[in-house]
Structures are given as C-alpha cells and as structure tokens.
Amino acid sequence: MNDLKITGIDVTLCETRVKGNFADSTRNVETIGFAVVDVSTDQGLHGIGVTYHEVGGEAIRDFIKYAIEPKMIGRSPFETEVLYEENFHYMRGVGRKGLAFCAYSAVDIALWDLKGKALGMPLFRLLGGTNPEVPIYASGGWTSYSTEELVAEAKMMVSKGYKKIKLKVGVEGGNNPDEDVRRVAAVREAIGPDIGFMLDANNVWRAATAIQFANKIREYNIEFFEEPVFADDIPGLAEFKRGTDIPLATGEHEYTRYGVRDLFLNHAVDILQCDATRVGGYTEMLRIMALSQAFNKAFAPHGMEHMHMHLVAAAPNGVYLEKLFMFDEVVKSVYLNAPEPVNGIMTIPEKPGLGLELNMDYIKECKGR
Ligand SMILES: [Mg+2]
C-alpha cells in the first residue's frame, strides 16, 4: 500500500438552495454548497475530502480539475508535505487565500483519508489521539430571527442535549446593538445559567462599538465572542481584546499558517477557529495546531464537523467542534450514515481514514444537475 499512486480526482458540486430565513449581520445565506472530492488510486482505494462554499463552487471545481489534478496524477498520497509545497508555489500568484486554497484543502484532506485507509487506521489515531468522543456545540440563532424564534431555537438546542450554544448578534446590520443586548438577555434567561453561551457578530462592528456592546452583555457570562470586527482588522481585534475580558474567537476567514501567525503575534485571538477545508487541509492545519499550542491558545475549528472531528480529537488544545444546524440537509445527503452528535458529543467511527462514506446516488444526482 505504500506505493499507492493517484490515478484521478473527481469533483462534484452538491448545492442546496437555503429554504429558511438565514441572515447574519453582514449577509444573507442563499446557497449551501459542498465541493466533494474523490481521489482514486491504482489499488482501488478512494480518498474523500470536502470544502464548503456559498458562492464560487464552479470555480473550485474547475480549479481542481484543470490546475490541481494534473499535478497529482502518478503521485503518492503519502507525499502530503511535498505536494503541499509544490502546489503552494504553483498557485501562489492566484491563491494564497480564497477559492484556490479551498480547492487545494479538499484535495489534501482526501490524501489524508487515503493515508488512513492505506494504514487501516482512523485519522485521529494516526495523528496520535486516543479518545473518539469530541464535545460539539450547537450553532445557529440567525439575526433574521425574531427574539421568539431565537429563544425557541436556543431551547431546542438545549433539549437535544447540547451543553454549549452559539447565536448571532448584529441585528439590523449591526445598527441596533441595544436590541442585541435584549436578545442575549432573553436567551440567557431561557437557557439558564449552566449552558455555555457564545456569540458571533460575523465581522459587523468596529472595535469601539464591539467593546461597548461586550461590556453591556458581560453579566450574561459569555464563553467567547466571535469576529466582533472585520476578520482582517487585526489591530481592531487586538483593540477589542484590550477593552473586554470576554475571550475572543476568530480564524474562520484566515488562510495558511502565515495568517494565523499574525493573529498570534498581534494578540488578536484567544480561541482559534481555522477551518481545514479553507486553510490548506490537514497538512496546513497540523502546523496551525502546533502554532496554537506554542502560543497556548484554544483550538476550536469552524463548522464542517465531519472534516474536523479527527483534528480536535488529536489536538491537546482542541476544545470542541461546531455543528451548524443549517448544514444538516447537505450533510445528510452527501454522506451515508455520518455520525451525529448525541448529548453534545460527537463519537468518531472506528473506521480507517475519515471514516466517512459518500452517498453515491446523491453524488450522481448532483452531477446530473
Ligand atoms: Mg462564525
């Protein structure tokens, strides 16, 4: 199996139009899309990887097909470091961040799936972890919800056994923080004092407004506050941290270890939320995890719990996964029997690689669209 050779990469776009009313402070969610990668080998093994998009899926698909696949044919899936380096420099003029990097991330994850399958080991064990049970929090609470809908969803999450929940703030495009204060108070009242409660502002505010808001909600015992300001406003994130003692979460919009380095050097993050399906796959995420340990920060990746469960299980500073309820339909369609959280715990299957199987009927249906 060590002489495994890649023979091809198949990419399928699986997209669903969002039926509900999902908006955060800065955008409406119209489409949930997975680009599903299937790497085939000369010995019949297949590796799978996924990246997520709301827009640009066709570009991701074509980038994999026309730019990445030709570089991979005949190579070994065990060459992840060498392949990463080659591809990084090959595409560096067009993609150290953004769609090209999402494309490479999905392929890299599929290589790691192949490594685990070739060795007959679940990835979390291959990466040095021992515990298949990973805490996971529930995530939703859109700014487009009324306070009643928000409270109802929070209660639903708690009734499903989640010990921690995350909701959005920044109603009316961030122009009514006092209404956000009332919504946060209503949710804390509804869920009681023992449920972990996190907030996500999705980049909406400037540092001064975010600090003012954070100080108004301090009494509601907020476990972390995510992206209070624009993700690239690293000085603003650092300013936020100086103005409040609520821990700061960010990183879902960051790419590669270089972006993460700057968050750490500028004291602009407490809980690092990078997404392996964007930052460069498992290969780059393992470096980022090591960096987060060196800076003694918590690691809690963004969404994509089936892509991230092995990493959090293996990371000494891994705290929890995020389950976005909005992804339920596409997740249930794309995978066969993907594990689901029970009482706030995701249990990783003891199967080789990622331990996931594609629903090929659905994949074929997506190809036909
Ligand atoms: Mg977020």
Describe this structure in words.
The protein has 369 residues and is of the alpha/beta class. The protein has 15 helices and 14 strands. It folds into 2 domains: 6-120 and 359-367, Enolase-like, N-terminal domain (Enolase-like, domain 1, 2-Layer Sandwich); 125-357, TIM Barrel (Alpha-Beta Barrel), CATH 3.20.20.120. Strands 4, 5, 6, 7, 8, 9, 10, 11 and 13 form a 9-stranded mixed beta sheet that branches. It has a 3-stranded antiparallel beta sheet with strand order 1-2-3. Strands 12-14 form a two-stranded antiparallel sheet. Helix 5 (147-159) packs parallel to helix 7, helix 7 (177-191) packs parallel to helix 8 (207-217) and helix 10 (256-265) runs parallel beside helix 12 (281-294). The chain is globular and about 60 Å long. The mean pLDDT is 96. The structure holds magnesium ion. Residues 200, 202, 226-227, 252 line the site of magnesium ion.
Distance between the termini: 36 Å
Helix percent reads 40-55%
Q: Specify the number of helices.
A: 15
Oligomer: single chain
CATH superfamily of the largest domain: Enolase-like C-terminal domain
Question: How many structural units, i.e. domains?
Answer: 2
Uncertain residue segments = none
CATH architecture of the largest domain: Alpha-Beta Barrel
| Percentage of residues in DSSP E strands | 15-25%
Q: Care to count the β-strands?
A: 14
Describe the global form: globular
Structural class: alpha/beta
Order of helices and strands: EEEHHHHEHEHHEHEHEHEHHEHEHEEEH
CATH class of the largest domain: Alpha Beta
Radius of gyration over C-alpha positions, nearest whole angstrom: 20 Å
State mean pLDDT (0 to 100 scale).
96
Largest sheet: 9 strands, mixed
User: What small-molecule ligands were found?
Assistant: magnesium ion
Assign the CATH topology of the largest domain.
TIM Barrel
